[in-house]
Amino acid sequence: MPNTFLAKLEHISLGFGQRVILHDVGFEVYPQSILTLIGPNGAGKSTLLKVLLGLQQADTGKIWRMPGLRVGYMPQKFHLDRLLPLTVERFIGLRLPRHDREAVRQSAEETGVIGLLGQPVQSLSGGEWQRVLLARALLGKPHLLVLDEPGQGVDVTGLSDLYQLINRLKQQHGYGVLMVSHDLHLVMAATDQVLCLNGHICCSGQPEAVSRHPEYLRLFGDWRTAGLGVYTHHHDHQHDMHGCVIPHKDNSHG
């Protein structure tokens, strides 16, 4: 793991009225590494992302960001007027100060939605919409991707492919990734570090170590006794944006 972090939080605490949302939370995000925040509903995961992004002010604590840090953000919810006449291409390009078609196409190519650019956003499936949001987050060539529940509305097969895509982007471009997820049995096989949050840090470390920690077991149970293994997905084919198998090309015969 690289020694220089992209962002670092120390002793972050935040409350609303009498309710403590976050207490003494800290972590570091590194290039070429995926850090996944897990925890029950109401644990403060999305709030913590907003603190890092500067969208929410913490009561106490410090935040360091690498000078010139570029961040691509994929929010948990994105409300879009279904009557708004907007194509996928135009939606992705809204982040740009001017419409840069080549940048949009490159981002769409990397996330597998190049064939959707001319379609209205209202026609997309859940999996397609999440990939479009990811494509939008990739514009501007970020150093850090912040993904809040990227698997929402995606089926199990699509989830596995989506997490593999995020990992592949990390490897190709050296992104640091900070992600919130509830898809425990999938994400534990697709992340480098895990931070288990429940208002405070319950445990953190590599996935296999965290899955054995007493606090993790107290919150989520033991997948060994529940019959749920840490899921690892390997295959020798790819899916297109609609989930259909793309035949493997055999180049062994020249």
Task: Summarize it.
With 254 residues, the protein is an alpha/beta fold. Helix content is 30%, strand content 24%. The radius of gyration is 19 Å and the shape is globular.
**β-strand amount:** 15-25%
In N-to-C order, the SSE pattern is EEEHEEHHHEHEHEEHHHEE
The name of the CATH superfamily of one domain reads P-loop containing nucleotide triphosphate hydrolases
> What's the story with the biggest beta sheet?
6 strands, mixed
Span between N and C termini? 39 Å
Count of alpha/pi helices: 9
- Overall 3D shape: globular
Spans where pLDDT lies below 50 across 5 or more residues: 226-254
Q: Going across the biggest sheet, name each strand in turn.
A: 5-6-7-3-8-9
Helical content band: 25-40%
CATH topology of one domain: Rossmann fold
Protein structure class: alpha/beta
> From the 3D coordinates, which CATH architecture of one domain would you assign?
3-Layer(aba) Sandwich
- CATH hierarchy class name of one domain: Alpha Beta
How many beta-strand elements?
11
Radius of gyration, Cα only, in angstroms?
19 Å
Indicate the mean pLDDT. Answer: 82
